[in-house]
Amino acid sequence: MGIFQSIGSFLSVVVIAWTTQRIAMYWEKRKKVEETKLSTYLSWMPFLADCYYHAFYPDGGAFDEKAYLKKQVEILGTLQIMGPTGAIDAFYDFCDEAERAMHKDASFNRKKFHESYTQLNYCFCCDIHGEKFVPAPQKK
Description:
This protein is mostly helical and 140 residues long. The chain has helices at residues 3-56, 65-82, 85-102, 110-129. It contains four helices and no strands. α1 packs parallel to α3 (85-102).
């Protein structure tokens, strides 16, 4: 075995080890991002449930508009930073309908409210599972 074969064998081991390490780091980082997104999305569920409650029972208890606006802006800002893009529109629609209901506006649309919530969760699911988001067709 010549010196060049020894050096070649050593370099191939180094390259394989380096490549394996890079691949492992990539998947570990991706897993951490997915876990963070899941945790973040799930942390928003109590707020969304509270919106539902106040939308359907506007007289059912105190509603703190300042806290609502603060949480809404927090969620919107997070969506603008980390996506998914489709969730921003769904979140806007959901909040618009929730506010109409909470203010007892006659233009509140229960169906649109439910659809926007479903669309929002669908965006989150696609993002967490790495699937392509396909927006629901717009109904006229």
